[in-house]
């Protein structure tokens, strides 16, 4: 599937490349929709999204959840704190760690961004039938849980 008869790799048929390229295209096209109006990056949006869902998380937990480089997460968190969208407090259970939460401004922005993200998802999957969408999610879960 990913090699030609001469033993070369067909990048356009190589699954890791295809998944990465598609994810980047979808993320960037969504970023165009919210970056001008809200002034946030893809990384900042992902952190807002995970904190909107989980409420309180450490930077390490965020890094693991969104599968982003810890340096990129750290920089994005710093920008979100500077924009008064996220606050960092000492973890009540572990004084060596910090918990990140959305500020009131951060929660308001998150609530404004969710409909934009959901509409974008609908546009991306609009050409798929309901059954194809269900199959896609099952296949992605299966791949995500595969041993690497």
UniProtKB/TrEMBL annotation:
Keywords: DNA-binding, Transcription, Transcription regulation. This is MarR family winged helix-turn-helix transcriptional regulator. It comes from Thalassotalea psychrophila. It holds the Pfam family MarR_2. PROSITE patterns: HTH_MARR_1 (PS01117), HTH_MARR_2 (PS50995). The keyword Ligase does not apply. It comes from the Bacteria. Residues 12-145 form the HTH marR-type domain. Gene3D superfamilies: Winged helix-like DNA-binding domain superfamily/Winged helix DNA-binding domain (1.10.10.10).
């Amino acid at each position: 599937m990913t090699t030609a008869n001469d033993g070369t790799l067909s990048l356009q048929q190589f699954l890791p490349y295809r998944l990465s390229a598609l994810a980047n295209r979808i993320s960037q096209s969504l970023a165009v929709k919210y970056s001008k109006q809200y002034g946030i990056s893809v990384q900042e949006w992902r952190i807002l999204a995970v904190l909107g869902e989980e409420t309180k998380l450490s930077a390490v937990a965020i890094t693991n959840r969104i599968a982003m480089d810890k340096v990129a997460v750290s920089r994005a968190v710093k920008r979100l704190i500077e924009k008064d969208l996220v606050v960092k407090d000492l973890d009540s259970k572990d004084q060596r760690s910090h918990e990140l939460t959305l500020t009131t401004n951060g929660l308001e922005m998150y609530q404004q961004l969710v409909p934009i993200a959901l509409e974008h998802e609908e546009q991306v999957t609009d050409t798929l039938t309901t059954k194809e969408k269900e199959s896609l999610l099952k296949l992605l879960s299966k791949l995500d849980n595969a041993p690497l």
